[in-house]
């Protein structure tokens, strides 16, 4: 009876390129003996999204152990309302986060949780709600975000007065600030009262302020407070809207620095941060503008500032992102950014061919805490 081919014999019959893509044997993720959570994860998350999550966690952990290397986080969706601040805050305190790019909604919703935590609620079976029940929530000012109910009056509306005061002051003094800097002034000047049930450690915005971690907020106008600011500076003469302008006069529209100032700030910060050889890994939670804006700083520096230099010199002077870890629920489609794939980013000079690239198609509220636990050595 003829013996069947062994694995090694079968591998020799494959093309060299295909052979390099096959790893023989069981996955072995090395974690410390005194890290019980990581050891359980390493021994059980071996395949599919679980295996990818562990690959990303181990690579990011090792990346941050190399002198000066850190991660840069981008967050879309409603991560702040879903309390991702708990894990983000711990990573910030551990010194693993170099910077963060978020939507305007995530910026403010991190603060909402800090000032109104006891007024939040959740609806586990939210898909069972009827349209009439959704309208009931609307009538009492409970804004649903998937399973989470955000209390508008106790969160967003309590910030209107102190923020309006800061905008007015800036106008009177002839100063301008980036959008997020007004929110940090609320902490600096003790203009907000923390909810007694909230934990400041769980507010990533507060932790970023305490630990001097740069914040970038592209597209901040698309947020509740962004809408309120838009109303506050409306000076138009529409026959209906003019009756509802902010009195005694609208705030000057230029007290917030323009959106492109965030790219100026990001470009300068990126150059300073990577000047001495430190590398930044790009960790993308969800898709959208928070991620696309931030990752573009590398081709912006190469192709705009150094447009007249040869590409080899661009690559030498501007280090690309060291790695790309994306956790999202958007399948690759035609022309969308979310889920586009790490390889596509190589063609845009955002990543190099040797970059670590992993995409995990899953809920980042579940996967990212797993990655963070391993990075933190839990």
Task: Give an overview of the whole structure.
With 378 residues, the protein is α/β, with parallel strands linked by helices. The protein has one domain: Deoxyhypusine synthase (Deoxyhypusine Synthase, 3-Layer(aba) Sandwich), CATH 3.40.910. Helices cover 44% and strands 13% of the residues. Strands 6-2-1-7-8-9 form a 6-stranded parallel sheet, sandwiched between helices. The protein has a 3-stranded antiparallel sheet with strand order 3-5-4. Helix 4 (48-65) packs across helix 17 (364-375), helix 5 packs parallel to helix 10 and helix 12 crosses helix 14 (297-305). The longest helix has 18 residues, at 48-65. The protein is globular and about 85 Å long.
Q: What key phrases describe this protein's structure?
A:
single chain; 378 residues; alpha/beta; Deoxyhypusine Synthase; six-stranded parallel beta sheet; three-stranded antiparallel beta sheet; globular
Output the structural class.
alpha/beta
Mean pLDDT: 94
Task: Give the overall shape.
Answer: globular
Residue stretches low in confidence (pLDDT < 50, at least 5 long) are none
The CATH topology corresponds to Deoxyhypusine Synthase
Question: How many helical stretches?
Answer: 17
Could you give the order of strands across the largest sheet?
6-2-1-7-8-9
CATH class: Alpha Beta
Share of helix, binned = 40-55%
């Amino acid at each position: 009876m003829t013996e069947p081919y062994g694995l090694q014999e079968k591998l020799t019959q494959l093309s060299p390129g295909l052979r390099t893509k096959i790893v023989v044997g069981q996955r072995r993720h090395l974690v410390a003996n005194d890290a019980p959570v990581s050891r359980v994860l390493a021994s059980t998350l071996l395949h599919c999204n679980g295996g990818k999550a562990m690959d990303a966690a181990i690579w990011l952990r090792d990346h941050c152990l190399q002198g000066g290397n850190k991660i840069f986080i981008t967050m879309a969706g409603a991560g702040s309302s879903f309390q991702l601040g708990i894990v983000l805050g711990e990573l910030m305190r551990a010194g693993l986060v170099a910077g963060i790019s978020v939507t305007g909604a995530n910026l403010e919703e991190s603060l909402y949780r800090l000032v109104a935590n006891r007024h939040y609620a959740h609806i586990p079976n939210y898909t069972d709600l009827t349209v009439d029940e959704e309208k009931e929530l609307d009538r009492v000012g409970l804004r649903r975000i998937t399973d989470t109910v955000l209390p508008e009056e106790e969160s967003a509306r309590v910030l209107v007065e102190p923020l309006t005061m800061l905008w007015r002051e800036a106008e009177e003094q002839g100063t301008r600030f980036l959008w997020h800097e007004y929110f940090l002034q609320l902490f600096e000047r003790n203009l907000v009262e923390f909810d007694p049930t909230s934990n400041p450690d769980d507010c990533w915005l507060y932790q970023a302020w305490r630990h001097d971690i740069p914040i970038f907020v592209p597209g901040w106008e698309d947020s509740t407070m962004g809408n309120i600011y838009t109303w506050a500076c409306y000076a138009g003469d529409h026959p209906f809207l003019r009756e509802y302008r902010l009195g005694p006069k609208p705030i000057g529209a230029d007290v917030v620095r323009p959106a492109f100032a965030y790219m100026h700030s990001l470009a300068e910060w990126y150059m300073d941060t990577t000047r001495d050889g430190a590398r930044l890994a790009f960790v993308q939670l969800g898709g959208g503008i928070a991620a696309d804006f931030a990752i573009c700083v590398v081709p912006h520096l190469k192709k705009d500032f150094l447009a007249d230099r040869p590409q080899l010199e661009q690559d030498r002077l501007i280090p690309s992102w060291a790695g790309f870890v994306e956790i999202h629920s958007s399948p690759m489609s035609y022309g969308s950014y979310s889920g586009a794939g790490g390889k596509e980013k190589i063609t845009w000079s955002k990543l190099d061919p040797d970059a670590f690239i992993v995409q995990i198609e899953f809920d980042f509220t579940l996967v990212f805490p797993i990655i963070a636990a391993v990075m933190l050595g839990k």
